[in-house]
Fold this sequence. Notes:
Strand content: 15-25%
Amino acid sequence: xxxxxxxxxxxxxxxxxxxxxxxxxxxxxxxxxxxxxxxxxxxxxxxxxxxxxxxxxxxxxxxxxxxxxxxxxxxxxxxxxxxxxxxxxxxxxxxxxxxxxxxxxxxxxxxxxxxxxxxxxxxxxxxxxxxxxxxxxxxxxxxxxxxxxxxxxxxxxxxxxxxxxxxxxxxxxxxxxxxxxxxxxxxxxxxxxxxxxxxxxxxxxxxxxxxxxxxxxxxxxxxxxxxxxxxxxxxxxxxxxxxxxxxxxxxxxxxxxxxxxxxxxxxxxxxxxxxxxxxxxxxxxxxxxxxxxxxxxxxxxxxxxxxxxxxxxxxxxxxxxxxxxxxxxxxxxxxxxxxxxxxxxxxxxxxxxxxxxxxxxxxxxxxxxxxxxxxxxxxxxxxxxxxxxxxxxxxxxxxxxxxxxxxxxxxxxxxxxxxxxxxxxxxxxxxxxxxxxxxxxxxxxxxxxxxxxxxxxxxxxxxxxxxxxxxxxxxxxxxxxxxxxxxxxxxxxxxxxxxxxxxxxxxxxxxxxxxxxxxxxxxxxxxxxxxxxxxxxxxxxxxxxxxxxxxxxxxxxxxxxxxxxxxxxxxxxxxxxxxxxxxxxxxxxxxxxxxxxxxxxxxxxxxxxxxxxxxxxxxxxxxxxxxxxxxxxxxxxxxxxxxxxxxxxxxxxxxxxxxxxxxxxxxxxxxxxxxxxxxxxxxxxxxxxxxxxxxxxxxxxxxxxxxxxxxxxxxxxxxxxxxxxxxxxxxxxxxxxxxxxxxxxxxxxxxxxxxxxxxxxxxxxxxxxxxxxxxxxxxxxxxxxxxxxxxxxxxxxxxxxxxxxxxx
Length: 808
């Protein structure tokens, strides 16, 4: 046999928990050190710490939690703390590849050496120009040139003299032209014009022609020898130039190689620089020192000549640079577009048309800047961009980042562009998102469980104890410093702590939604400053709370006016059959409030149909429908027995035209139906709320404080009678953090709050009739409410059977 307890009236002291200021141990936040790390998030901090410390692949972190609990702030603080203990990751530079110009070389250097290399290469070019100009303008170079060319020139002159003498013997002159050797007939030592030649006797002309033909082979031999000697001269001059150039710049390159001896990749590139300089001496010799135009702007660069652009291949592009003592980088990218995360290849328009690019136009993304450290990203924004999400997974899987433009991957006709060498990554990625987003990503993308193996959950509440209270005080102290607020006295801190309990809807827990606490602190400081107060006091916190409500409660006030003038039909005294005051909560973004709503029931004989008008009108949500079906289960279990319940009943929320959801009205609907069936009037001065199960036990609901306060305000508009109140589930008692106005009304006996464990406890209070329990004879005692309900249902069942017999 079950035991029924009567509804318990709650004392004023149990309706709200207060925090005595004297227990805080300080007079103001001036004595409190600022907070270090998140308040009450030890589980999350431990998980994050494990993820950040783990060096195993795939142990990136996915942080979840409600909005406003300070996830991002706490994360950044923990990341920076972790980063301080790690070494700086060094610099990354991109260099021109002399063998594959489309594939710039990525080189890792110790911290600070990237910019140092830029300066070294700039000085190398300046010194190389100066040294080369001096070397090629020196007397020694001129003398060596002459030493190399004069023998060849003498040999050439001797061969030409010999050929001319042979031709002269046959009255033929030779002229050396750019196109070869020209033969000219002579008469009397003078050239014969074409006209005179044509007038010569034919035997004379034939003799000249034969002499010229005889000179053909010697001329060809001479020309071949001349070309060979010219090639030899150029070869000797080129070798001389290389020798002089190597002498002029070799020591400069060697100095750099020695300076960067620890980087084989860079010293190898410097060797290629030396070879390229020697092979392209003309580009250096064409400009004297200081003659090169400065390319300080994109427009200036567009005017640069080909030679100057060619010299740009020796420049160094410092992609990422870090301070030597800066620790590991922490990058928080709030706009994670493809280019912002993974970098881009820029192109420069030329005046003649078209676009050009080179290794200097490679730009880093957040992934490059965070390499060797930590990257913090908003999960929703990343997952909303499929190319970004796919690229991020590729980066984490391969441990490399390739610079490429997104548009080029989807171009209809691929264009020639750079394919930079990938950069090796040592990166820890932290995604921040909602719990629902994590669940969806985990379920729909198997890579999430491989790449984000550490889940860190931020809680929305923390146990209300001395530690949490001290955390609140430290948080307020940090807000004073960071936001320039006035300090809070102990009373103000205690009032903020109590407000944290109200946000958590608990006497045992405090809210960790510190974005709300920070806003309250700022507004309280404002009101204190307006009064020229040196400290924020409890009344300033109270005023900040009241003013925030006032800025958002317009709809509530309009509804209150409708209650006062009778537009909304509600009774706050007397008794009615099949009618009760239920309680609902309206949520308006940043503000929610409770209000009473009339629930009515009508019933008659039928075939067991129980109808929710809201459900039929498609104005109810799934949770409300579940609660309504649970009500049906209660009726069948309580009264069904071995026969069908011959019932047809309708239930509705009167004057309700919006979508409703939740099961907190299930008890009110059941009370109204039981009242209709038992023909037992219900008190209209008592509102009820609570979910039920099929055994009639009352279950906790949300928004209990708003509901009680909403009914209290409605009763106050019509006038408090001293009998009005609210019945709530016993499980909700520890969630009460009611306003001082309601607590004062209860203390003065003008308003009441009862708790009940079962439907029976509630119905007894509402009707004044014992609910009744089945005895040994399986019958309810006469006169009890359950007996009256069962008697009426049996009467309807007999009526239905008689009608069926008459019809059959």
